[in-house]
Amino acid sequence: MPLPEENPLVDPTAERVAPPAVLVVFGASGDLTSRKLMPAIENLALRRLLPPGFAVVGVARTEMDDDDFRTRMREAVEKLGGGGDEARHVWDAFTGGFRYVAGDYSDSATFDRLKEVLDELDEQRGTAGNRLYYLATPPETFPVIVKALGEEKLNTAKHPDAFIRVVIEKPYGHDGASARALDEVVHAVFDEHQVYRIDHYLGKETVQNVLALRFANAIFEPVWNRRYVDHVQITVAESLGVGHRGGFYEKAGALRDIVQNHVMQVMALTTMEPPASFDAQGIRDEKVKALRAVDILSREEVLTEVVRAQYSRGWVEGEEVPGYREEEGVDPHSQTETYVAMRLKVDNWRWAGVPFYIRTGKRLPKRVTEVAMQFQKVPHLPFAPSQARDLAPDALVLRIQPDEGITLLFGAKVPGQTFEVRSVSMDFFYGAAFLEEAPEAYERLLLDALVGDPTLFIRSDEVEQAWRICDPILDAWSEADAPLATYESGTWGPAEADRLLARDGHRWRQP
Ligand code: BG6
């Protein structure tokens, strides 16, 4: 779409600039809009990637007028450290295109009003009939909003060149059956190519770097398989508790909140075969294939291969914190897990026999996400045991956050007259290697959705495969006698999780 010439809002050298469009945010008075979407829009605007014909319509139940909405969004970005003169200037140029529609999602009057506002924006701001609907609402409203968009014909473009897309937040279903039911509703209104299921982990630079590392280099891929890799550890650790999200979290738990989406996506990128081409179909086809190869646990195996646990009171980062059952909105007898550890197998030629150990939890000692490939021991160590006391097997650690980068751990001779070998590390730090500032995950993904690149969004069959892996675990846990361990806040999880690895002669890394 041609952009106006001499347009100070758009960087003429940028490779990708959003086309004129209206971003319709359902859930506009919510936390996600203030904390993630608005800062992302502000950053895109500051990088001059949004055209003048870009507008935002907030929709939510809270009564507000357009000005209240603008003020509220301004305050949200300022609170997060945005603002400044340049930002204010850019912001002012945009807020003329901000509108707000108050109403209930089950009331057709809300959508009638929305339609009017969209038509006005096309007239006044040149948004060209392009729409990106963003469902930043609680999951139970997803089908309600999607159906209403269909009933009000807001799913059809005004003219053949215009696009209509919908971004749907997680969680996509609370199990496989509900995800399929949601898909039925969604597919009755939108074609799959219009549906952008978001998982913000895929927007993280270092998650995308798993693909760069594996497929842009000749040295890693030859050892990325069962012949060289002994086992893989994927850790998504958080130091925070559930905060004010107790009510939501009670119904979710760590398996639904983190494993079904973020962990499965990281696992798919780690295990997939090289795609023939680096496009949405090529990458997503390979990811689905990788998830399909994950062995499904039987009920008995869930009891031996999966550990779930809940945090109790303790100390995290120098602060005393309450136990999960004492958190706001949490049942004092809650059985919801805040920690999961498991051992998975990937049944294909590349990974047969290589255990994948996964763990995620809240209130662990620190926030860290990483993938660690632990390589096999050398077949024969020609040193005396005393010379290699401090030698661990080689490992390649992909640090997804924080300290984004890569570490290679290997053995080196300790300087001195004796021959002693010790593990050392070779580190690559993103921040030191590149001057460019990495975009935030939401910023990247919002621009992708606006320009119509679905590569980093989850296709329907990927969601299905991820639930296929998680469903049997949820089923086994729903039985009354399913064990739930506890761990003290500020520790690396329950002893049961250590035993899961000890059985195989392994230990969790201490990131
Ligand atoms: C969200 C979960 O999807 O991811 C939260 O709902 C979690 O519970 C968050 O805290 C973690 O994201 P990040 O980007 O901080 O690792």
3D structure, described in words:
The protein has a nine-stranded mixed β-sheet, with helices on both faces. Strands 3-2-1-4-5-6 form a six-stranded parallel β-sheet, sandwiched between helices. A two-stranded antiparallel sheet has the order 9-10. The protein is 36% helix and 20% strand. It has helices at residues 31-46, 66-79, 84-95, 108-125, 142-151, 176-189, 205-215, 246-271, 280-292, 299-305, 430-433, 441-451, 460-477, 495-502, and strands at 21-26, 54-60, 98-102, 131-135, 164-168, 195-197, 229-237, 306-312, 314-316, 319-321, 339-344, 356-361, 368-375, 395-401, 405-413, 421-429, 485-488. Mean pLDDT is 93; it is low at 1-6. With 511 residues, the protein is of the alpha/beta class. The chain is built from 14 helices and 17 strands. α8 packs across α13 (460-477). The structure holds 6-O-phosphono-beta-D-glucopyranose (BG6). 6-O-phosphono-beta-D-glucopyranose is lined by residues 238, 257, 369.
